[in-house]
Amino acid sequence: MNESTPGKPRVKELMKKLTQDYYGDAARAHNEDRFVAYTTAVSPVELFVAHDVIPIYPENHSVMCITKRMTTRLSTAIEKKGYTTHLCAYARSDLGYRELGESPIGGLPDPDFLLACNAQCFTLTKWFEVLSRRYGAPLFVFDTPQYIRNKKARRNIIRYVEAEIYELITALENLTGKKFDYDRLREVLIYSRDACRLYKEFLDLAAHKPSPVNIFDALIHMAIIVYLRGTPQAVQYYQGLVDEIRREKVAQGIGVIPNERFRLYWENLPVWFKFREHANLLASYGAVILTSLYVHSWSYDFDVSDPIRTLAENYTSVFSNVELEERAERALDLFQRYDLNGNIMFLNRSCKAVTFGEHELREILTQRTGIPVLLFESDMGDPRFYSEVQVKTRLEAYFETLERLNV
Amino acid sequence: MENRIVRELSDIANNPYEMARRQRAASGQKIIGSTLADVPEELIHAAGLLPFTILGTNRPIRRASALLPDNACSLSRSDLELVLTYETDLFDGFVLPQVDDTTQHLSDIWRRKIPTSFFECYLIPRQVDRPSARQWLLDETNRLKASLEKFTDRKISNDELHKSIVLYNDNRRLLRKIYDLKRQDGDIIGNRAFFELIKSSMFLPEETHTRELRHLLPQLEKKAPSGANKGLRFVVAGIVWEPPAVMTILDELKINVVGDDLCTGTRHIANDVSTDGDPVAALVERHFKKGPFSPIHNRGNRIQENLVDLVRRYGADGILYLHLKFFESQDYDLPDLKQGMGEEGIPMYVLDTEYQTTHLAQVKTRVQAFAESIRGE
Ligand code: SF4
Ligand code: SF4
Question: Which of A240-247's residues contact partners 24+ apart within 8 Å by CB, and which partners?
Fold first, then answer.
């Protein structure tokens, strides 16, 4: 079962290969006269793919720095230049990498163009402004006003974002001196649509009991949907992934942990450098974290009949850009569909965009589910702001509560 | 500086709430509160409502800490505290502008936690370098207009809006004239007094404020430049001049503020609204003429260019940058800005500030040390 069938590599190997190819392409880009654009994880990357501009995600690179435990060192280097420790750990890792040149993958190619989509956060705009000045490369701020629940506002917002997409297309044409190909965009969008659907199907496997996947799996497999959206490889990858899990886990009733008791929701990004340890610790309580809104950020639903419209709608309505009540509804939908009975809410110093509404979110979620919440504050990337003892004690206390309530 | 008008406006700048309550009782007008920055007051005024800028509080933070994490800027926290704890009955409605993550969340929390019959957010474009932003702001401003009309159950006519625009233009023009006098000679009006004139305009009914300024201007014009003040000239940068004692300290040190890029300063009074054509479009046009503001992206290195320009134009000796703690946009700007000013040969000192600051003695020592370093002492 564990050997790969010829022509059908196991997904883990496939991921390795795709990642190598992607970064290999990127590294060669400038020698091959191709253009490199830095972009944000949530952004209409289909336009870059369709225009043969290589999208690079500094955030992804920063995650690698964090999991390799390089962040404190990188951050210290830029603190000396006057940047503060209050900034997002992704930004600090990235700016630190620019300063020291240290990277887990031998570095990133310099950008010819940058795009910051603020549906995700505003931090990225400011971080990319720094990079834009540094490399003398233009920055395109893809502005997505909060997708408030007001019909009129929404119509206007989509009109605005569509206009920005056309502006972006013009900017790309100016960058490359090449006409934009709308047929190609449709093709790319079909790949995106299919990959996103399969990605969502993969995430939704967590609804099974026992769950064959946990959030740790989701976070690992998320990488491909982030940086290979719009390619046939991504479609193939998630098809393989879903098939493999169905075949090897679901069909045989195998769960992530043997005695699954607590099925948990996780709010916010992960504490990247601690996640594996958290998973192990939780397993000892019969607990498994299944999902979060964060991993669902890439479960887009593209309607390819109107590419510009669907790009505008999908990238504007991501969970970090809707009103709090709507964000809560999306979380509640996960509680219901996955039958969750625990809730860990992480207040992430790094990420103001996801964290600042969290106290209110907690209030709504507890009111609506009655499930007690474990709330803790730390940083997703900087161990200097992480207290092992505190987290352990809180977790223990939390599971005692859950057990007492006999959920 | 024992001028009656200056003193009265200063009192209002320091405690506007009693005045606003009296005003509301007397006129029956409803008060619409807005946080910083860029909500078009003309529009609220034309709807027959009283626009009032919410500028935080220096009183203790109690309830806001349970709603916003403590790495949110102290302006947002004290704005929230002000309406949650201290001025709970003052406002009849709110228009909250959004420019960054903090304001976006603040808007959600506010809407949920503060019961009011009118709540609207004003979604300002966070880029101003492409045409799409203009159309968007026009749409959004028209939406705000419609929403105000629904609240007051009456239309805002172009004529009314036009009148409000003329009124606000007059007010801005008078303030700019006084700024010019102050630039000539810091003895004509002090820093704290001048910036309190601006601040009070954000609270008082514009008619009253403008009337006062009309009386004040000739009085100040009569004070011929004495030439006695040979102190340093500063440009002040940031968003707000908080704590207010900062301006007093500059007064004490005989430093004249000759330029600024503050939201409670130049950003509030610069540029008139055109009185030709569609008034809403004119309001939008003014927005795009304003100086740079850290969270709003623009082409080039606008924040630095603008500050350099202010320094050169007004012959300033240095820049005092008021960095509001946890104002993340500033955190990203500052290292490059410091380096840039170094290359331009312009002395700049970054003072970390916060609402609820208590260590004023320290602030004074620092500003003094900076001034001395410029004078080469
Ligand atoms: S972690 Fe949050 S603040 Fe940092 S880049 Fe991502 S969304 Fe932005
Ligand atoms: S961070 Fe800056 S722009 Fe945002 S609310 Fe605070 S002071 Fe205003």
Answer: A240/A8, A240/A9, A240/A10, A240/A11, A240/A14, A241/A11, A241/A198, A241/A202, A242/A198, A242/A201, A242/A202, A242/A205, A244/A10, A244/A11, A245/A202, A245/A205, A245/A212, A245/A213, A246/A205
Res A3 pLDDT > 50: no
Determine what percent of chain A is predicted with pLDDT higher than 90.
92
Q: Please indicate, yes or no, if residue A5 is contained in any of the structural domains.
A: no
Q: Is A189 in the pocket of ligand 1 (CB under 6 A)?
A: no
A143, A146, A321, A359: best mutation site toward chain B, by most B Cβ within 10 Å?
A: A143
pLDDT in tens, A267-287: 999 999 988 888 888 999 999
Give the CATH number of the domain where residue A330 resides: 3.40.50.11900
Q: Which residue's alpha carbon is nearest to atom 1 within ligand 2?
A: B327
In the structure, what pLDDT confidence band is assigned to residue B300 with cuts at 50, 70 and 90?
confident
Ligand 2 geometric centre to CA of B35 (Å): 10
Q: What is the mean pLDDT of residues B18-46?
A: 96
Burial A346-368 (b: 16+ CB within 10 A, else e): bbbbbbbbbbbbbbbbbbbbeee
- The domain total for chain A is 1
Judge whether residue A383 has pLDDT over 70: yes
Nearest ligand to the C-alpha atom of residue A318:
1
| Per-residue pLDDT at A8 | 56
Mean pLDDT across chain A, nearest whole number? Answer: 95
pLDDT over 60 (residue A6): no
What whole-number distance in Å separates Cα of residue B169 and Cα of residue B252?
A: 32
Judged against a pLDDT cut of 80, whether residue A9 lies above it is answered with no
Measured CA to CA, the distance from residue A360 to residue A381 in angstroms comes to 24
- CA of B174, closest CA in chain A: separation in Å? 35
Contact criterion met (CB < 8 Å) for A356 and B132: no
CB B37, CB B293: distance < 8 Å = yes
Measured from the alpha carbon of residue A353, the closest ligand is 1
What percent of chain A has a predicted confidence (pLDDT) above 70? 98
A318 C-beta closer than 6 A to ligand 1 = no
Residue A363 included in any domain: yes
Q: Which of B102, B104, B130 sits opposite A167 (nearest CB)?
A: B130
What is the ipTM metric for this complex?
Answer: 0.96
The CB-side HSE value for B80 (13 A sphere, CA atoms) comes to 27
- State in words which class domain B17-158 has: alpha beta
Give the per-residue pLDDT at B197. 98
Name which of A160, A162, A362, A376 to mutate to probe chain B: the one with the most chain B Cβ atoms within 10 A of its Cβ: A160
**pLDDT confidence of residue A2:** 40
Residue A4 lies in a domain: no
> Which positions in chain B touch A355 (Cβ < 8 Å)?
69
Question: Which of chain B's residues have a Cβ under 8 Å away from the Cβ of A353?
Answer: 101
pLDDT at B246 over 70: yes
Closest chain B residue by Cα to residue A148: B121
- Where in the sequence is the domain holding A56, given as residue range(s)? 11-404
Q: How far apart are the CA of B297 and the centre of ligand 2, in A? A: 14
With a CB-CB cutoff of 8 Å, which residues 134-153 of chain B face chain A?
135-136, 139-140, 143, 146
Mean pLDDT of B322-326: 95
Q: Does A2 fall in a domain? A: no
Amino acid at residue number A297: S
Q: What values do phi and psi take at B183, rounded to 5?
A: -65, -35
CA of B75 to the centre of ligand 2 (A): 7
What is the per-residue pLDDT across A123-143, written as a single tens digit (0 to 9) for each?
A: 999 999 999 999 999 999 999
